[in-house]
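Page header: ASSEMBLY MODEL / two components / 826 residues total.
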Amino acid sequence: MTLTQEFPATRYRDVVEDREFPTVREWRARTGRSAVGCYPVYAPFELGHAAGMLPVGLFGGGNRIEIANADSRFQSFICSVVKSTMELGFQHKLDVFDALMFESICDPARNLASVMARNFKEQAMTYVHLPQNMTSAGVVDYLVAEYRRVAAELSATSGQDVTEDGLRASLTEYNAMRAAVRELYAFRALRPQDLSTGELYTLARLATLMAPDEVTPILREALAAARARDGRAKDRIKVVVIGSFCEQPPLELIESIEESGCYIVDDDFLLGWRLFRRDVPVDGDPYRALATAYLNDSLHASTKHDLRVPRATAIIDSVQRVGADAAICLIAKFCEPGLFDYALYRKAFDEHKVPHLYLEFEEKMWLYEKIRTEVETFVESMLFA
Amino acid sequence: MTAVKEIQYQGEMHLLQKELMAKYYAEATAIAGGNGKKCAHLLIAGNPVELLRAFDVLPIYPEVNVLQIAVRHGSLPLIQKAEELGYAGDNCAYVKADIGLFHSGYSTPFAQIPKPDVLVCNYVGCNVYLNWFEHLAEMVDAPAMNIDIPFIRSADGEPSAADLTYVVKQLEELIVLLEKVTGKSLDWAKLTKIVERSARTGELWAQIKDMTKARPAPYDAYFDSVTMMAPLYCLRGTEDGLRFFEVAHREMKAQMEKAKGPLPEERFRIVIEGPPPWPKLRVFRDMFSRWGAVAVASTYSTVGGLWEFGFRHDPAHPLESIARHMLSANVCNRNFLQRYEQMERYVKEWEADAIVIHSVKSCRLFSAGQGDMREHFVRDLDVPTLLIESDIEDPRYFSEAQLRNRIDAFFEALEQRRVTAGKTLQGVASGSATGVVGVGS
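Prediction written out in full:
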């Protein structure tokens, strides 16, 4: 069908998999400006944009590169995305970036920032400490100061100061991008037969590789095209997939889960790039608005610890809100934040009688038969047991 | 090689440590028994224990409890209990042992651990701390607070003014929480007194650490430091804690003046990086002792505070100095390259021959990237460096034969390096900075 062939997600599938970062190279050649690579989960990339840079999502090497050197720097029990990010550096695939941003998401990521700084001196390295006390009277002021520091560091690389008006303009552009992604997510939850998660993922990933004003029209176009579809719902169970907030599963794995009898109706893929629940206000101090959005208006993230709510609340809410039949915990191997959360999720699933399946993945995997069988067995137990 | 025999040295310091720790755990048991006193669970890395002591709240350290259990070979059943509850093989085994301990009624061979009246998660570097205490907060009925300590991001290792303001603010909020939990107001004079004791303790500890610059080092700065670390954390700010360090200082000084070390012969001076394998501590120590290898410095002994480079608590500014301790005066909250710098200072100023990196799977704060650390010391600084792996708490990761082979091969090579260097250096005065001439035959 013509519509499917021309669907934007299909068009960009190769682009999002390409670790030569074609969109970034093209943008740099066209604008002559610099780019900042942002390690997951959430970096305040809006600040990079306001400094005139192209913020880009770094999600390691996926299953497209072979790790030749990084595994002598990071041990066997460290997750793949840490090693493959370093490997991208060794293979000069990060040369397209003028700066890199890392954040306080976990212990290996923190040490990675130092190791990268030592080994790749061509890139300016910025480390962001995201707060973990959401209720202190001092936390907003702290985060505003931290964001101002980060903005100054990025400005020093790009040569363009971050002004408050400039930051407001960047927030506006990213608000539009995030709103489009939110709408795509809401659409997929209602009509998963008309927008597969493989397609949605490709679009959301594209949004981490392009300037917001350039990607938003593509997202809008995809939304319109998806709305024009009229697919028939298959006999599949509806699932919420959680645990892949940092290292990303291969696209083929996401598709395998769907093809094994699931409609994925919510997930935490690429979480940091669509973190805020609603638009960041642009009428006041933009630093304060961005800080407050992170503290009080962001989606549940395994790397953010908010003692105001029990850990599994957001997951149970998500299952209930989208009317999912089950949850799949799809957790990166060796990912401590994901693995710790699983122990609490599991308890909550039992208490709320939510069937769940636990799967571990690695970004570098390329055989999916075992996972396919596990999912098929799980789906059959749900549909026919 | 003739194996060096270890001296089973048990001085006054060791006896006093046992006595004081028994007293500490008796206090904990009394609280668990319902004597009405309060306790807080908190973590070792740079913490505000002085504030708890000012409220007469006993600090309980899950890390200390589970390491004590590991030393007594009791950690595995607790770890397995947690794994049955959904914790992964790849999760930190300290956390799993503590969760297992909770589900075993907090009963240990050395104490009945009281449930917390308040959970104080001092997030100092280690992100797993946040998970750990979040899990405890869901298990026990006690108020919980994350004290968010901004990681050091500056090249000079100093916190920013905004960092300091933020941490002091949180300490003020902790005071309000402790007032609520205990029903008392903060006695500032008492806090000042406690901080003053911490300052004196820090001074004595720094001087003790300086003594291992002597040849021979009067004690092993890894294996014997752990004896001193228990009072440093569990008793800091108390009169008992200060008395312990006065005794330890006197005793180590006397050892130094008599040119006595922990081994009959000090053949190699090493820096050890990383936490110890508690379940096999004695076996591990013997692997070094037989080579006459003595640790003259260790990064592990700076987890709870880095005093040897000048930091002291300041009774004139109690909250600010507690904040500084948490921010920048401990190894955990400093970045990985600042740890390289710390180790380089140890190698140079303490005149070490080599570095041993003990990489533990449980603690990624310590271990993630230690391959790069080895690369730096070997390639950039020409310091012989051994990287070995096991675990801090889980005995399943301790492969004795493999470790022994690696350690033996390393010291053999080191000895060979000396012989070769000795030949090249003939004619050069002995006692040079490398300490190689005429040694190691």
